[in-house]
Amino acid sequence: MMQNNESSSSNNIRLSATSMSPVADFLKETKQAVLSARLDGQSNGSLPHLVLGNPAGDADSIISAICLAYVDSKIGNKGEQPSIPIVSIPWEDLKSLRPESTFLLTNCAGIDDHLEDLIAIDQTDFLPSRATLTLVDHNHHFLPSSGTSSTQHQQEWTVTEIVDHHLDENEHLDTCPHGPHRNIAFEDSQALVASTCTLIVERFYALVMEGETSAQKLVPPSLAILLLGVILLDSINMLPQAGKGTPRDGDAIQKLLSDTDWTQIPLPDEILDNKKNHNTPDPTKLFECLQAQKFSPKFWKGLTAMQGIKMDYKSFLIPSDASATSSSSSSLFGISTILLDMETFWRKDNVLQTMAQFIAENNLKMLGLMFTYMQKAEDGQDSEKPCRQLALASTDRDELERLVAFLMDDGSDIVNLQLSKQDEVSEEKVMMKDSISKLYVIQMDQHNSAASRKQVAPAIMGFWKDQSHSWGERSEL
Fold it and tell me: Which of 60, 86, 308, 380 is the most exposed place for a label (fewest CB within 10 A)?
């Protein structure tokens, strides 16, 4: 367990690393505040403020929610009630299906004895029925049609702030208009930072500068290691050929390394810089450790097909006009990121049936599976490079073929994914309950390895916008 070398928070903003309590203590405080509010019936009349990541619940979403809530509570709100971080995936999924996140939280930031103080999206006993909300790592909070108790709890959550690096879907403009409370680092089809955690670092320094601090060691070490780990992971250790890291990410990494008193936190030996004597983390070792957790072949091969699809899944709303051009009543498409090569995933039991079931249960027009895996680089060194493949599945063959043609158009002004077909669209017959249904699937290699879901999702969205425009022109003839 981490030693409590970071003392309690100061009321003024002249900060040093020892003037702020550890993240573990903050989580305990916020959980106790939630419990007290439940007992008191929130008699003070103020709405609780929540911080929530995207439904996929990757490391960036989980850690950025925790860290932003911490920074705003300890520095930003100047004595107001704390912001409450919410883990955006079910509690059991956090414990068993997010190894890189739990490694950072428990092994590095000393939250091993306080993991139970985190509140997950399915822990409805702790979720308020009314709240204001900051979205991190996404900018559209829409509720699934499942009608679960968790969904019902979110009906009256009002988005008042967004901190994100994805394409702005221009939602929640009535309560979160364009301006300082809508910080979306995305322009010209590109994310301006690799990680939301970079934006949290920038937020921290902006708040500290308001206090005109002259302290040399600014960043609480438990906060620093969480932010550092995720930025390294999302930027692929600032590897130039990966095309993910930006100068803002690099600046955030350097500030965290230099402005943290690393002697104040015990870190695992496997991530330490052996050349230094002050418990300083080695960025490459930390990245490789987290990458090994995230891409563990044993872990991914042990998942069922359904677990693999759900592991890092995001759904997206299709513009209403585009939805109307299809015989399907669905207005959603979904994309899962799977950290295996396609061939290995396809060997899992009942993959096609699982895909068809997932499409039906989530009322999707289309399901995309983005496969990301590491392959030895061709530079004669021991380095690895990321490789990508893309599978698309739909119950509408014509629409799927038009989508593929759209994505393979090198002249697209959205992003050139550099796709090549492994084969043509195949027709698969799958058993669904008591009947046989048809599922149409295409498998492709994606040679633009820098294009992640941040670029692929807007490209697919662009197809439906294009279809809507074309359909509108035809209807006027």
Answer: 380
| Cβ 406 vs Cβ 462: under 8 Å | yes
pTM for the model: 0.85
Contact assessment for residue 119 and residue 31, using Cβ atoms and an 8 Å cutoff? yes
CA distance 111 to 234: 22
**Strands 426-432 and 435-446, bridge-based pairing:** antiparallel
What SS3 class is residue 280? coil
Question: Most distant CA pair in the chain: distance in Å?
Answer: 75
394-438 pLDDT tens trace: 999 999 999 999 998 854 566 788 999 999 999 999 988 778 899
> pLDDT, tens digit, for every residue of 12-33?
333 444 468 899 999 999 999 8
Euclidean distance between CA atoms 262 and 217, whole angstroms: 9
Across the chain, how many H-helices and E-strands are there? 16, 15
Residue 456, Cβ neighbours under 10 Å: how many?
Answer: 22
Least Cα distance to 217 among 265, 183, 250 occurs for: 265
